[in-house]
Amino acid sequence: MTFRRFTAILASLGVGIIVVIVAFLTIYAWPAIRLNGLGFLSDNSWNLGNQYGTPITVHGQQILPGAHYGILFLIVGTLLSTAIALLIAVPVGVGAALFLAEGMPPFFRSWLSFFVELLAAIPSVVFGLWGYVVVIPFFGRHLFPSLAKSLGFIPFLGGITGSGYGLLTAGFVLFLMIVPLIAATLRDALVSQPAALREAAVALGASRFETMRTVLLPATRRVLIGSSILATGRALGETMAVLMVSGNALNYLPHNIYTPISTMASFIVSQLDSALQDPTGMAVRSLAEVALVLCMISIVVNGFARLLLYYEGRQRARVA
Amino acid sequence: MGLSTAEIRHFGARPVSGRGLQRRLFDYLGWGLCGLAFLLLSSAMMWILIIVFMRGANALNFSVITHVTEGTGGGLLNAIEGTLVLALGGIALAAPPGLAAGIYLAEFDRGRLAPTMRFLADVLVGVPSIVIGYFGYVTMVVALGWKFSVAAGSVALAIISLPYICRTTEMALRQVPRALREAAYALGAGDGRVTMGICVPAALPGILTGILLALAISVGETAPLIYTAGWSSYLWTGHLTNEPIGYLTYVIWSFISEPFETAHVLAYAAAFFVTLFVLVISILTRMMLDENAGWRRLRPWERRKG
Question: How far apart are CA B239 and CA B242, in angstroms?
Fold first, then answer.
């Protein structure tokens, strides 16, 4: 066997695991997919049924009486927490990128950029720990009550503020986890723009900030969009930190930004133990369906972002 | 008629009114907001580091690293051992296919499989780690009957670090000058000799750095291990299957929500070890790769977390 073929086979065994993952999850979840149908995505009830009842047969599948699997609350929780994280992360990331690219003496630039990037190296569970011991008490006791009091007239900002576990806390922790990605990718793109762009803007009388805002930022628009989508993928699949600060609500649609939620990823961790109590095994298979949905979403989101960044890279290569 | 330098300078620095003042104010406001954004990020980072290192340092004492966990107290010896066993096991499993994939993508770029392989590796990076953990549970723990075990945990970690080793290997090999390969081929060496004898040794620092970073990721992972490695308060007896094993990130996650002070102390100590390990490796590799154009692809978020 040639070396090339040997490498190809070994490598395919490695990266091919993604195909195996999707295939196995689909096979394992198949009875649940047939049972739950499309209602899985649109119904808002995750109910394991009567643990002591005799299993009944529905659509040819054995389930516990009263069992019903719908994950609308998970989809809503996942999308809303990610949306909040992005809503803060994009402006803050752009601001930090501008500051790191142009706003400080060159000597500090690379080290301070690295410092911000290190934020992305901190393990998820450490973010969760910090959120649990610092953010939740602070948000629950101080920030949320005063926010609800002063801005309560805005929809979804008023009402009961709860204990600090919830949508906004999860969104905030997710924001900190994804913002270094946006800030550093954009900073690199800003720094590597052709000098001629900058010189032309300055020659027309633009100040440094005006150069950044009106010339360099628009030129790097696609990098910003691509890295934001990549960051979205990260936020959607984030598990441990969200698990520790979101409140792990069950069958509960948020009515304001302080409401406890669950995301698909954190739900898989928090529910497997109770799902194992189901003697028919349908609960575990439905959890596999949750994992499959999550996997599919992240594949689509990541593929799209890579495509965008790939075209941007090709364009830049052509200019240079 | 020309302007003197002094006149030009005067022209640029002249205090302006109306629109000019507005522009200047706008500039200050813009930079102020940018600085604020940066301040927010760096202070959050500082805050996390302070919490982890201050409370962690307070929690440290000699018995933490010499005793095993007893209930929610005791030490972390079993968890430290477990983390090392799982992470090293994961690297050992991920290295051969990861290196092979990196070599194939860098050296045999024109190969028929290259585009597919690159796409799959990119997709694999984005798969949430809990999905990999659940996959491991369904296949290895249940279907293969391995139960919670070192084997299942290591395989889950291997799947996570694999695309990462692949990426860094590819980047390191691409730094090797083309002339080296041409010279080797010209002397009659085959694919295998050129790659393993010439290119890989030349790219070795970069490849090892990638493996080191993959180790740091594995040490910081939690989600893929919860339902593959389980938890155990005892030292590992050497069985690959049917024996659960403890690890540090589990202690952080589950002990911090216990009502006992001893449990919190252990959680902070575990966070101290994990964060220190990850940060030291990140900083070391950054210093090693600073001059290297390829280092950009080694950014922390190319790793996934759970």
Answer: 7
Angle between helices B261-289 and B200-220 (to 10 degrees): 160
pLDDT along chain A (320 residues), means of 10: 87 90 94 89 85 80 84 94 96 95 82 87 95 93 88 82 89 95 91 89 90 90 90 92 91 87 93 85 91 93 82 64
The two structure tokens encoding residue B102: 């990196």
Token pair 């080191």 is found at B212
For residues A223 and A291, is the Cβ–Cβ distance under 8 A? Answer: no
Interchain CB distance below 8 Å, B45 and A134: no
Cα–Cα distance between A225 and B39 in angstroms, integer? 23
Summarize pLDDT for B23-34 with one digit per residue, the tens: 889 899 999 999
pLDDT tens-digit readout, B79-132:
999 999 999 999 999 999 999 999 999 998 887 888 888 888 888 988 999 999
Q: What is the ipTM of this complex?
A: 0.90
CB-based contact B140:B152 (threshold 8 Å) = yes
Q: Which of A184, A269, A303 sits opposite B130 (nearest CB)?
A: A269
- Residue B267 and residue A122: Cβ atoms within 8 Å? no
- A119-128, A197-206, B197-206, B295-304: least confidently modelled range: B295-304
CA distance A110 to A266: 35
3-class state of residue B159 by DSSP: helix
Instruction: Provide the residue type at A293 as one letter.
Output: V
A259 Cβ partners below 8 Å, 6+ apart?
A: A162, A166, A167, A247, A249, A252
* Shortest Cα–Cα distance, A212 to chain B (Å): 10
